[in-house]
Amino acid sequence: MSLLLVADIGGTNGRFGLVEFDAESIGADGQINYTAERQITLKCADYVDMATMIRTCCAKFGVDMPDYACLAIAGPIENGQASMTNLNWKFSIHGLRDQLGMKTLHVINDFASLAYAVPFLKENELVTLYESNKSNSDAPIVVMGPGTGFGMAVLVPNQNNWKIIPTEGGHASFAPTNEKELDIKSFLLKEQSHVSVENILSGGGLVTLYRALAHNSGVEAKPYSPAEVSTKGLANEDALCREAVLTFCDVLGEVAGDKALSVGARGGVVIGGGLTPKLMGLLPESHFLERYKNKGPMAGYVSDISIRLIVNDKAALVGSAAWLIHNTPELKSH
User: Fold this and answer.
1) Residue 132 CA to chain centroid, in angstroms?
2) Which of 319, 330, 327 lies closest to 2, judged by CA?
3) What are the tens digits of pLDDT across the range 136-193?
4) At residue 318, does pLDDT exceed 90?
5) What is the CB neighbour count within 10 angstroms for residue 208?
6) DSSP 3-state percent helix, strand, coil across the chain (nearest 5)
7) Of 294, 13, 293, 259, which is closest to residue 145 (Cα–Cα)?
8) Phi-psi region of 221 (alpha: psi -120 to 50; beta: other; left: phi over 0)
9) Rounded distance, CA 261 to CA 257, Å?
10) Quick check: pTM over 0.85?
């Protein structure tokens, strides 16, 4: 039995979990439990560096430092060096491994971890938004999602495993498809030279949509936060907030179809991130599905691709565990 430490570390919080892995318990069907039964959350601001937070985490779990770990972090990883986007933390992966006395330490991008979780999530951790019986299990899956930003990765089947292709798809240009969205983009182009998908499909994007709609309606925008736009829109307490969240859903459908076409995601579209589950009840009222399929001669192509939504907010821990197990040969040889 091996004890694995997995984590999903952002600019504010670090979520940690312990996974008990026994190579001898893997059945002929290859079923593995990737769920961290024990979990804790620590505030990053309480710690001076990554090593200190990990040591504290293990102390709180009441365990010795595990030999194997995988950290999913919000930030770039290049040439064995990792840096946190919203924290002043930079570290060498090998250096941190040696400092903590681990045998193996993997550090991957947080959205890559979320994407890698998809094939290993349980049925109740995903909700089907659109079902097609023509999805191809041998084809790529595109995983995308609005949260603080807009993340996107592609999962490609690779010899009974999955290869992650990380992307910067959230920074692709926002493409309006009706007069209202043209007016929104026109408003934003007066403030910035490039309007991206992330400028619309993110927490800040909800506020951006609200401000643009208010301006184009000749109404003074109130200083709402993303949570206020979302809450007031869902409760229909403010007409412009309602329009903002419905427009958000429309654009999400449009972008999901665009990305599916761009990467040939015949295996499916999976939406993650923290925002969509909160807005899920509005999708039928919006034009989400209509816009998803609105691809001219390729309407039939995207109509054959199912859409699922991740509803497990700890999915990145599952992805970290799966990544660690599938990319550490000595674990399975124990």
Assistant:
1) 23
2) 330
3) 889 999 999 998 889 899 999 988 888 999 888 999 999 999 999 999 999 999 999 9
4) yes
5) 23
6) 45, 25, 35
7) 259
8) beta
9) 6
10) yes
